[in-house]
Amino acid sequence: MARDIGSSAINTIVAVGAMLIIGMLVIGSVYATVPTDTASVTDEEVIMDIEEPVALDPGEDAFSFSETIDVELDDGTPLEEGTDYEWDSDEGEIQFLDSADVTDGDPAYVDYEYEAPDEMAQSIIGPLSSAFDLGSVLPIVIIAGSILFFLRGFGSGENRR
Description:
By secondary structure, this protein is an alpha+beta fold.
């Protein structure tokens, strides 16, 4: 008798978990194929740091940065990629290098482009995709499985013989 209830609970937890994971994958794949807009940022101020990469801040919806950026000093002097900085377009980070034009702690101004979901996609799919991150799935599966276990175990009595 107890074994039937236990195996039923495990089956329920597995089923709920599978449905949530499939839902996450579907929402994630839809989010990855939504129409995008290219946005431009001009003169974003960053503080040059020779020891740590500096992250650009276009907003949380950016998922693809341009392959090249323009960086210049306060006086308009352009910095050169490879000599004054390295650009990581995958992470959206600039690693400033120890060069004659780079002074640790001074401001620099960056122009760049990035891709983000268009406004309609952000309003429809954005909140859904953030609600289904991996960190929230396990507690949901445990809670849903526990509720279903207790409802089936103490409900109609059908599982008891």
